[in-house]
Write a structure and sequence with these properties.
Strand order of the largest sheet: 1-2-3-4-5-6-7-10
Number of domains: 2
CATH superfamily of the largest domain: Glycosidases
Number of helices: 10
Shape: globular
Helix content: 40-55%
Radius of gyration: 20 Å
Oligomer: single chain
Strand content: 15-25%
Length: 291
Amino acid sequence: MKLKQLIGIFGALTLAACDADIEPIDQRFVGPDGQDPATYGAYMDALRSYKQSAHYVVCARFDNNPEKVTSEKECLRSMPDSLDIVMLANPLSAFDREDLPGVQRKSTKVLLTADCSDPATAVQTVDKALASVTADGLDGVVISYSGAVTDAARTAEAAIAQKLAALSGKTFVFNGNAAFVASASRDRYAYYLLDATTTENVYILQSDIDYLTGYLGIPAAKVIPAVTVSETINDAQSQPQPATSEVAKTVMKSALGGLALSGISSDYYDVSTIYPRVKAAIELLNPAHEK
């Protein structure tokens, strides 16, 4: 299913939402599913078909559970429908739990991040995350490790690997120093995030990709560069370009797994710059350049 077709269907729903008089009192919000169930049902079927097809994965890191919710951009339900995976940075709030079923109905997987950078507390951190996965019906976890690979780290990784092996039907993503993951456990992770949020140019990015795929032996299809939507990266001619689209080109060139968006909750709703960059990157990857 082409992404343009999804946009067309959803556009009809949006127009229907706008074609209504404004009532001064007794207002209530009626979503697209309530306004035109048939069209919305077709949209959901198309969305499900698209996510089940061969395509480049697009995921986002969502800084959920802020101290105070001030707008829709801080709500899980406002994440773009086209995302394959949303990675929660923080434990779920009551609002997140309310939004979760609606997001999952759109075939979007919601994962909880477990920061295991301190080997002394890594196993307990994973236990807590996995308990939430079970209790809240989440789709998996992101294991994050940014430290050096010490003996303590190896011990922690082995214990974490056993815990993940005991689960079935869940998605696991790794973020950080991929050398932390023992070679025997590397197949357990669906994707490996490559932090490109501060990468200066595409040559450094390619070098980082080569380290993961060549030295560590991680399949290219499991590597997903993560970029900050508002940042730029220098192209092969040393010219600054939007990081989203330029890194997306590298994703296709190197047959990587997809693209990750960092900090989407803070800058996705800049309609003059950020939203167009996200939209352009997704359309560049899917469907014009399907695998």
